[in-house]
């Protein structure tokens, strides 16, 4: 199904939707602002392949979408270098060391981004610093209670109970984060297991020429003595 309007109008919409000016876009894709302006205004009706590809890469949309040939803006294939994967990660996918079907299901799960975000926070010690500060406050409070017990033995029983309650509030600096990661991950696994049991399949596989080239190269290496 073709889209109404011109490629220039869709480029303008993409700029507006991504809060980027036409001048900024022109600089990013290496063309003059006036050249891009003529395309957006409709003065120039033909969009060169260089500009088309540049705009598509900048906004991560398909060239067919810009041309109005498809209502689907997401590209069907990517240059593997755009994904930011390491050589080891790609090799694991290509050789089959990593089960792609399971990986697909993990990546497609609605809570997978949340899981990755929790792991990132754990690695960066963002939450741990807050927990450490919290534990320090508790230690200050318990120290004050200990002093109170020494100065006022008659309140020893109450102070001792308060000490126990405060100490129970202290947790390891990563304990809460690990528990959150575990809970989210297990929930994802349960959902995936349910989908598999119900016969639901992961999304349609996306192919790329680079992947095939790597497979061919690996096959050739295996054949060498």
Automatic annotation (TrEMBL):
Domain of life: Bacteria
One Gene Ontology MF term: DNA binding
Annotated SMART domains: HTH_XRE
Pfam families per record: HTH_3 (PF01381)
Gene3D superfamilies: lambda repressor-like DNA-binding domains
Record domain HTH cro/C1-type: where: 11-66
Protein name: Helix-turn-helix transcriptional regulator
Source organism of this protein record: Candidatus Faecousia excrementigallinarum
């Amino acid at each position: 199904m073709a889209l109404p309007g011109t490629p220039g109008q869709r480029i303008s919409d993409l700029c507006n939707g991504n809060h980027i000016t036409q001048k900024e876009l022109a600089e990013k894709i290496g063309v003059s602002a006036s050249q891009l302006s003529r395309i957006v205004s409709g003065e120039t009706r033909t969009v060169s392949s260089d500009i088309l590809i540049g705009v598509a890469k900048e906004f991560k949309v398909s060239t067919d979408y810009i041309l109005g040939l498809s209502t689907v803006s997401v590209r069907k294939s990517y240059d593997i270098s755009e994904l930011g994967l390491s050589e080891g990660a790609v090799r694991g996918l290509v050789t089959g060391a990593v089960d792609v079907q399971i990986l697909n299901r993990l990546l497609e799960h609605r809570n997978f981004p949340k899981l990755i975000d929790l792991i990132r926070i754990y690695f960066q010690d963002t939450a741990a610093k807050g927990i450490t500060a919290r534990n320090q406050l508790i230690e200050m409070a318990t120290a004050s209670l200990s002093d109170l017990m020494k100065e006022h033995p008659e309140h020893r029983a109450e102070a001792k109970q308060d000490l126990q309650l405060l100490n129970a509030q202290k947790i390891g600096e990563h304990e809460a984060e690990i528990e959150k990661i575990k809970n989210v991950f297990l929930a994802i696994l349960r959902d995936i297991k349910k989908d598999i049991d119900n016969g639901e399949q992961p999304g349609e596989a996306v192919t790329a020429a680079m992947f095939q080239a790597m497979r061919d190269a690996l096959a050739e290496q295996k054949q060498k003595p």
